[in-house]
């Protein structure tokens, strides 16, 4: 049966990410927060030192597996700041191919999490054969591009449910940034505030007094403010412990024209930009892509918190059921009622000795969230005794032959 399935499938490698139609994208990536237009815009804007590819496995003309890829160099220990960091930096200078490797990454550079597109009606047999073909192709691409490290980046238990068992067993695991999500269950902003702790509610109401000093604009044409928007973005990246890549100015200049639902919220005082928030509204969510502010006046005006409240207010008024608040600051966001989706990076260095070194250091290099979270467990559908979550079942109901591995439900 496996050989018969293999005869029906063909694999192609592309040097782009937008290799399917919008309708096919929706079928392969149901519930994924970033739409095809945003993925295309990231690709067209370009990112320094990044190249993008994809692998597609088709049955005749019908795609059943789409694997997004990127290639770059990365400091693998950038997130470690504990004891011995200076020693680790010295070792990294001696072993640059171990600590600054060229990476062939699976996933999206700027996505809310890593995900692979699956045909919802594909059988487990088809997926197993398709993955066998993909893993062989990944090895060939890594070899021809001289990529030292292969990594599946930011996959969670649901988006990574169908990652192949071979990857889950043979790749090392480290925790990655969890994604913050706030389900909008409130009829008004006051009701949202009432759901918070007394101390948090009191603090936010005090911060809201600064609203009188501000002008808030929602616009798709930031125009004269673009210089400060991009400077605020660059300053935010510079303060980040671990930045994976940097968007070019073109991304911010053209995002509203290229991506349906993209819009800026601008926070101004006396006509001068104090902060910006780039948001993308989709059918089911408001996705917070980037926030940046004046480092001094932004804090004095409590702009992070005011932007958060403005986004909650907008979701309530527009009937948007979910706010994607993005990664980091779990302690703060949890006090604001955000929930978190833990994720993991799975990696394998092509040099066995380097892989042993990185595997030994992995427990010290993973992301450490500010709150206790469960570990992401990718690859669950290949386990015979794994509980069947609704997100892993086909639209027609429970079935062991037709899983729906790509589906992440709206309400996480």
In short:
The protein is α+β, with helices and mostly antiparallel strands and 412 residues long. The chain has 15 helices and 13 strands.
Radius of gyration: 22 Å
User: What is the share of helical residues?
Assistant: 25-40%
CATH topology-level name of the largest domain? Aminopeptidase
Order of helices and strands: HEHHEEHHEEHEHEHHEHHEEEHHEHEH
Supply the CATH architecture of the largest domain.
Answer: 3-Layer(aba) Sandwich
> How much of the polypeptide forms β-strand, as a percent range?
15-25%
Separation of termini? Answer: 36 Å
Shape from CA axes?
globular
Number of helices: 15
Mean pLDDT: 86
What's the helix and strand layout?
Blueprint (H helix, E strand, L loop, with lengths): L1 H7 E6 L7 H7 L7 H10 L5 E9 L2 E12 L11 H10 L1 H4 L2 E5 L10 E2 L5 H21 L4 E8 L8 H6 L1 E12 L5 H6 L3 H10 L7 E5 L6 H14 L9 H10 L3 E8 L2 E10 L4 E8 L3 H4 L2 H16 L3 E6 L2 H6 L3 E11 L2 H14 L47
What does this structure look like?
The structure is a single chain. With 412 residues, the chain is an alpha+beta fold. The protein has 2 domains: 227 residues, 3-Layer(aba) Sandwich (Aminopeptidase), CATH 3.40.630; 136 residues, Gcn5-related N-acetyltransferase (GNAT) (Aminopeptidase). The chain has 15 helices and 13 strands. Strands 1, 2, 3, 4, 5, 6, 7, 8, 9, 10, 11, 12 and 13 form a 13-stranded mixed β-sheet that branches. Strand 2 and strand 3 form a beta hairpin. Helix 3 packs antiparallel against helix 11. It is globular and about 65 Å long.
Characteristics:
412 residues; alpha+beta; Aminopeptidase; 13-stranded mixed β-sheet; 35% helix
């Amino acid at each position: 049966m496996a050989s018969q399935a293999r005869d029906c499938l063909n694999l192609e490698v592309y040097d782009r990410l937008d290799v399917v139609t919008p309708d096919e994208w929706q079928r392969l990536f149901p519930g994924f927060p970033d739409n095809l237009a945003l993925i295309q815009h990231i690709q067209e804007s370009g990112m320094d030192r990044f190249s993008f590819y994809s692998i597609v496995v088709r049955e005749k003309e019908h795609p059943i597996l789409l694997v997004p890829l990127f290639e770059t160099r990365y400091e693998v220990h950038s997130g470690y700041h504990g004891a011995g960091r200076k020693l680790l930096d010295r070792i990294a200078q001696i072993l640059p191919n171990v600590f600054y490797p060229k990476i062939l990454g699976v996933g999206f550079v700027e996505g809310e999490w890593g995900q692979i597109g699956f045909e919802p009606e594909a059988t487990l047999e088809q997926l197993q054969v398709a993955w066998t073909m993909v893993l062989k192709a990944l090895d060939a691409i890594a070899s021809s591009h001289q990529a030292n490290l292969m990594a599946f980046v930011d996959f969670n238990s649901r988006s990574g449910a169908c990652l192949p068992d071979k990857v889950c067993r043979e790749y090392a695991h480290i925790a990655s940034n969890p994604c913050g999500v706030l389900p909008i269950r409130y009829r008004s902003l006051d009701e949202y505030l009432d759901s918070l702790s007394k101390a948090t509610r009191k603090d936010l109401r005090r911060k809201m007094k600064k609203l009188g000093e501000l002008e808030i604009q929602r616009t798709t044409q930031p125009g004269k403010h673009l210089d400060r928007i991009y400077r605020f973005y660059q300053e935010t990246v510079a303060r980040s412990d671990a930045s994976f890549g940097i968007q070019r100015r073109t991304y911010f200049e053209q995002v509203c024209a290229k991506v349906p639902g993209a819009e800026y919220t601008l926070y101004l005082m006396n006509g001068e930009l104090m902060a910006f928030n780039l948001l993308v509204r989709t059918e089911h969510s408001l996705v917070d892509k980037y926030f940046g502010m004046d480092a001094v006046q932004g804090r004095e005006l409590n702009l992070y918190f005011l932007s958060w409240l403005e986004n909650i207010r907008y979701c309530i008024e527009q009937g948007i059921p979910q706010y994607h608040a993005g990664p980091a600051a779990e302690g703060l966001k949890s006090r604001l009622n955000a929930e978190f989706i833990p994720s993991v990076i799975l990696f394998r260095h092509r040099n066995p000795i380097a892989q042993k070194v990185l595997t030994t250091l992995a427990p010290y290099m993973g992301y450490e969230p500010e709150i206790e979270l469960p570990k992401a467990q990718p690859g669950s559908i290949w386990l015979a005794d794994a509980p069947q979550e609704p997100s892993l079942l086909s639209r027609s109901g429970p079935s062991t032959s037709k899983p729906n591995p790509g589906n992440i439900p709206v309400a996480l």
